Amino acid sequence: MRLKRILAVVFLIALTNTLRAQSDKEQPKWYDTFSLRGYIQARYNAFQSNSNLGCEQCDKSWNGNSSFFIRRARLVFSGQIGKQVYFYFQPDFASSTSSGLNYGQIKDAYFDLGLDSDNEYRIRIGQTKIPFGFENMQSSSVRIPLDRADALNSAFTNERDLGVFFYWAPKEKRALLKSLVRDGLKGSGDYGIFALGVFNGQTPNQLDQNNEPHIVARVTWPFAIGNQIIESAIQGYTGKFVVPTNEISKNVKYTADRNYLDQRLAATFVLYPKPFGIQAEFNVGKGPEFNKQTDSIEVQNLKGGYVTMSYLINKGKQTFIPFLRAQYYDGGKKHELDARSYKVNDFEFGLEWQPVEQFELVGSYNFSHRRYEDFELRDNDQRGNLLRIQAQLNF
After folding, report:
1. Residue 270: predicted pLDDT
2. What rounded mean pLDDT belongs to the chain?
3. Cβ(158)–Cβ(148) under 8 Å?
4. Residue 85 vs residues 80, 114, 191, 204: alpha-carbon distances, Å
């Protein structure tokens, strides 16, 4: 009898270990889903007709002197480390400071916590892109034009901030959003069908300055009509932005607490390139802007948008995408000196060529008319043309 009991215990132990081993095989470890990827962008600007024409936010090599320039050098670490936990970390090693170029800086550092088994409802915590504007959320490695348009990109430096965000999307829509990037259709990625978030509002890698978080909301809906895929969205945010003291000239007037209303509403329409594509956005709002008549930073109206048209051509394993874009913006840029006042009318055309999956080359020609003014730059109305070339390595 005692022998039977011993054998029974041994059998149960063996069975338990077998089931546990089988379970371990069925549930991969977090490092099995860990991935590393990245991209490097090198640019060359040439034939700039006006050396005084600049574009501080989009590309600091617009100065008449620069030729070769590393725009981005990024690594992306990510992984589904649990069924309902996902992490994403992206440093960039081509950031610029007042003392030089190519400094390391955190771009993204966040994790997603799924609230259900399919992760249709999830919370994102950390530094991430703000769900405002299709082109803002679209990765620079995917976007066709070399820089984002001023009208919506002026909302946030580097498109990011630190906060907490709620996303919802049915799993079939999440799969569609993912495929629009994977299949080379220039998607924006999965930022939910509905998004709601609170964030510091002082741009990335900065501490909050007023204990009054910004609030953002977005609703989008991608859908298919025959072979075509269309996406439309509406989004908006509101808050108060604190203009940094080091971004205010000595004799400029400003409010005592440097708090300024900062709010926008934007609409998006995207016809994905199958083969003809249209991407258009427009926003209106209020924000801080320099007034040269009073030498002060004031809350003023802003408006602007862009239209990008493209045509996707696949020839064997090569891809060609000719494109053109027109953009307009009238308003301030809160993160530049004195909340610099802008009026932008730009037009560009170009071609993206992907001979292989890991490499692409983009050439574009820009016709630019920019008025940008602060305390030192008065009546600064610049026009000019330039040729721009970018080589991108994907790995």
Report:
1. 98
2. 91
3. no
4. 6, 6, 16, 23
Q: Is the pLDDT of residue 11 over 50?
A: no
The closest of 64, 76, 78, 66 to 42, measured between CA atoms, is: 66
**pLDDT greater than 70 at residue 199:** yes
**Distance (Å, whole) CA 279 – CA 196:** 23
Residue 196's nearest CA partner among 213, 179, 177 is 213
DSSP 3-state of 227: coil
For residue 319, pLDDT over 90 is answered with: yes
Encoded amino acid at 331, one letter: G
pLDDT(19) > 50:
no
Check if the beta carbon of residue 347 is closer than 8 Å to that of residue 367: yes
Burial of 207 (0-12, 13-18, 19+ CB in 10 A): exposed
Handedness of CA 207, 209, 215, 221 (dihedral sign): negative
| pLDDT tens, position by position, 298-312 | 999 999 999 999 999
In the block, which residue shows the tokens 């994790």? 111
CA pair distance 241, 143, nearest whole angstrom: 28
Helix (H) or strand (E) holding 159: none
For the entire predicted model, the pTM comes to 0.90
Report pLDDT for 68.
87
* Residue 192, both tokens: 């939910």
Compute and round to an integer the Cα radius of gyration of the chain: 24
Q: Which two tokens stand for residue 129?
A: 């892109």
